[in-house]
Design brief:
The chain is mainly α. 76% of the residues lie in helices and 0% in strands. It is built from 1 helix and no strands. The longest helix is centred in the middle third of the chain and has 51 residues. The N and C termini lie far apart (89 Å).
Amino acid sequence: MENFENRLIDIEVTLSELLKVVEDLNQEIIRQSKIIARLEKENKMLIESMKENPVKPLSEETPPPHY
């Protein structure tokens, strides 16, 4: 009977550790989702900015002051 109790305790400990890992992974997914949402927003803003103000051709750019 003691062997059964030890096995049950081991299973409970393992389950507890796995639940902690799942929670940690869930928190990481939430963090990464926020980063992805921010990057998508920034990307859309850059795309819109490029549509409104496209880069000038090199011939139209003023040279830097050291030229």
